[in-house]
Design a protein that fits this description.
This protein has helices at residues 2-11, 25-40, 96-99, 127-137, 145-158, 169-180, 185-193, 198-208, 226-232, 244-247, 283-289, 307-324, and strands at 14-19, 44-48, 65-66, 77-81, 102-106, 117-120, 212-214, 219-224, 254-262, 269-277, 293-294, 298-303. The relative contact order is 0.10. By secondary structure, it is of the alpha/beta class. It is built from twelve helices and twelve strands. The strands form two sheets. The chain has a six-stranded parallel beta sheet, with helices on one face. Helix 2 runs antiparallel to helix 5 (145-158), helix 5 (145-158) crosses helix 7 (185-193) and helix 8 (198-208) packs across helix 9. The protein folds into two domains: 2-193, inorganic pyrophosphatase (n-terminal core) (Alpha-Beta Complex); 198-324, Diaminopimelate Epimerase, Chain A, domain 1. It binds manganese (II) ion. The site of manganese (II) ion has 6 residues, from loops.
């Protein structure tokens, strides 16, 4: 499939690059990285991200990101980075005639039938790692300096700062190359993981107050409601990563964050669930059984039920899964 992607790139002149809705560092970083590679190969590239960037990713964008699609253009193919589901495709994608084949570059294990051409490597720590592999295929290693910071950010974010078990020697070698090409490790870590506005710390404090343990301390449940967000003066982007605090507790195997979220369509609230596993339990499977998806250790879903109903459902599903082991 890698060759098919390479062939498509060599045969085309103009490409559209985008990533999943509500972009994270891997989605945006890999898209920015791919853009640089394609330009280096002499292609015309539009990088289309309609959603506003979360505050901690703004440092990656130096005017490359287009929030509106240019009119009157068509593309030889459209790349969608880090995307495993049709429901996560960016809004406002042009019709098939204009956009060409939809090429998915992704590393999620659980996915639906999204995409016309799918290049997926579930062993990759990040989509950014796959962009590094593509760079090698195109003879662009070491990668151009302009690609170093976004791809480095993608690797750092999806490995939790080179901590998760996906941090293979190959990944650290890539990290080294990206530093040699100009990425600044502390700048990226500070922008991604620190630099919190005071509202976010207030939100964390409120979320920690909701901690419930179940399944003899193996499940940690955290909740965030609209009222809590309002009280803290926080926004939804600030909820990102809060579920990790549940997993920090000794004995916890699965952490789940129940998150009241404005419905995609119409008024009212839906509930998102973020799952984290310490490693043994497969939360990707639990999320999939609840209509979502993700990886073995990080996954999520979105339900139309209210937060209380969802919390009870999560409790049941997780306790059943933990007892199965
Ligand atoms: Mn990713």
């Amino acid at each position: 499939m890698r060759e098919r992607v390479a062939e498509l790139v060599r045969g085309g002149e103009r490409f559209l690059v985008c990533c999943h809705r509500r972009p994270d560092a891997d989605a945006l970083g890999s898209a920015l990285g791919l853009r640089v590679l394609l330009q280096e190969l002499g292609k015309d590239v539009n990088l289309y991200v309609p959603d506003a960037l979360p505050a901690n990713l703004v440092f990656l964008d130096h005017g490359e990101v287009e929030q509106d699609l240019p009119e009157g253009l068509s593309w030889d193919a459209t790349f969608v980075m880090d995307t495993a589901a049709n429901s996560l495709l960016p809004s406002g994608l042009p019709d098939e005639e204009r956009r060409g084949p939809l090429v998915i570059i992704d590393h999620h294990a659980n996915h639906d039938d999204v995409g016309d051409i799918v290049f997926r490597e579930t062993g990759a720590c990040a989509t950014g790692e796959m962009v590094m592999d593509l760079a090698e295929l195109f003879g662009l290693r070491p990668v151009p300096p302009e690609a170093a910071t976004p791809i480095y950010a993608a690797l750092v974010a999806d490995t939790g700062g080179f901590r998760y078990s996906t941090t293979k020697p190959k990944v650290l070698r890539m990290g080294a190359e990206l530093l040699e090409q100009g990425a600044d490790p502390w700048q990226v870590a500070y922008e991604l993981f620190e630099k919190w506005p005071s509202e976010r710390l207030a939100l964390l404090s409120a979320i920690l107050d909701t901690l419930e343990l179940d399944c003899e301390g193996r499940l940690a449940l955290l909740t965030v409601t609209r009222a809590m967000l309002e009280e803290a003066g926080a926004n939804d982007d600030m909820v990102e990563g809060m579920v990790d605090y549940g997993r920090k507790l000794r004995g916890v195997e699965i952490a789940a964050l129940i998150w009241e979220f404005p419905a995609d369509e119409g008024e009212g609230l839906e509930t998102k669930v973020s799952f984290r596993s310490r490693g043994e339990a497969d939360v990707g499977r639990i999320a999939q059984a609840m209509g979502g998806g993700g990886h073995r250790t990080a996954a999520g879903t979105q339900l139309t039920d209210d937060a209380d109903t969802t919390r009870e459902r999560v409790r049941e599903m997780v306790c059943a899964a933990l007892c199965d082991d």
